[in-house]
Amino acid sequence: MITIHHQPISSSQLSSSQFHGQYSDSILQQLHNHPAVFNYSSYEELNFEVTMRNYIVVAALNLYQSKASFATFYYSRCNERYWRLTNEGGFELKSGVRPSQAINDIFQNGDKYAFECATAMVIILYKAFIDTVSASVFDRLYPDVYLWDWNRDSNFPIITENVDGHGIIGDIRYFKNPDVNPRTPQWQGENAIELPNGYYYGHGLGVLRAEQMIEELNENRRVGATRSAYLMNDANRPYFAFLFRYSRQRYMETEPSSAV
């Protein structure tokens, strides 16, 4: 259910509002029909979340098409024009490089990059935020981007919710493989973006339905395994309300005041 200032919003009210993006209608429908209550301070805040969720899907599909490879931390690689590869397999932004430019390069020159699935999720979220608020705002908010695992700026919070079968397009879900083969520990699970129509994007596995993700992970179980991989009930998602307020507040702080 969607509420504005704790007042329920009808389908007709939503349809009369302006929401842009290829997947916005599907996202709105899921939020509206969800058993949980999603409360917003304004239509603008609701639009922010819907827009960013839409761009999360777009970024996931573009990363899939980018030719960026899957690799464990030891075998990570990056475009050294923008990043320095650290000893732990992370990407440290080079001095003088705009953060948004470096993030965008991953999508434009994917064949120069290799990383694991958690790093891919953060890359997707950063890219979606750039497309939601603009590159210039992102650069001001997050000047020191470092990509490694789930590492991210402290002012880019991610929350975990129990969705119990009611994930929303743009959520990050996790497929767990409890009997993973110890020879392939990287397949102990797969972080995946929830896409429309029952599909998921997982870096290294691609765009698949849930049962196909599970089949792929089951191929990497130990000998004698008795437990199947499965989709967990939790979902990770950006703390949209915080990002909405933070981006607006910092943008207003950095805008020059008008002459009187």
From TrEMBL:
E.C. number: 2.3.2.13
Keyword Acyltransferase appears in the UniProt entry: yes
Top-level taxon in the UniProt lineage: Bacteria
Enzyme class: transferase
GO molecular function, one term: protein-glutamine gamma-glutamyltransferase activity
Keywords: Acyltransferase, Sporulation, Transferase
Pfam family, one: TGL
Record's protein name: Protein-glutamine gamma-glutamyltransferase
